[in-house]
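=== RUN LOG ===
request id: a7f3
mode: sequence -> structure
chains: 1
length: 188
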Amino acid sequence: MNVIAAEIVVNGLLKGAFDVFDAMLSCTFQYELDEPDVFSEDSLRAQLEKYPVALQCKIRGDLGAVALLFSVNDAARFSALIQEQEYAETEALGDGDRAMLKEIADPALGGGVTNLMERFGHDVEQLEEVQVLDTGAGHSAALVTLIGADGGLATFTFTNNADISGSGVALFSHSLEAWLVFDLLQTS
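=== RESULT ===
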């Protein structure tokens, strides 16, 4: 893994996704990224214990896949915000939360992928198989298959100007690093 390239990929993904969160949730988020690393199914399983809610998709044209992992409480908070409801801590997502997260996942992941493609000078590709899963470690093997065994993982924290703070994990296919233009790596 090229750490510089991986950081550019994750920053691009998170910037686009949080720009959409900002617009949909009427608040401004900031995020900080830890250094990306290659994941194994075991390390992914451990992350899914802490962040069991996955917003995930494939990028059309076999360009790769991405996923954002969140805790149940952070995912429920996003759902409450989009519905303009009061947030209450929870241990499991309800059907309404899942439906709202699906509404968030498509544009947020799309915004992240669009940001990457535009930054890399590629035509924007559509997303396929956008899903919201909240089965935790139970879908680690499926995520490894989606992302690829040599995929990258980066933890991040996020805050907004109000009272929201949390953390999550960004997953991405190694193939996304290949999109980078040499100039982009040199300017980072």
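=== NOTES ===
Residues 31 and 114 are 19 Å apart (CA to CA).
DSSP finds six helices and seven strands in the chain.
=== END ===
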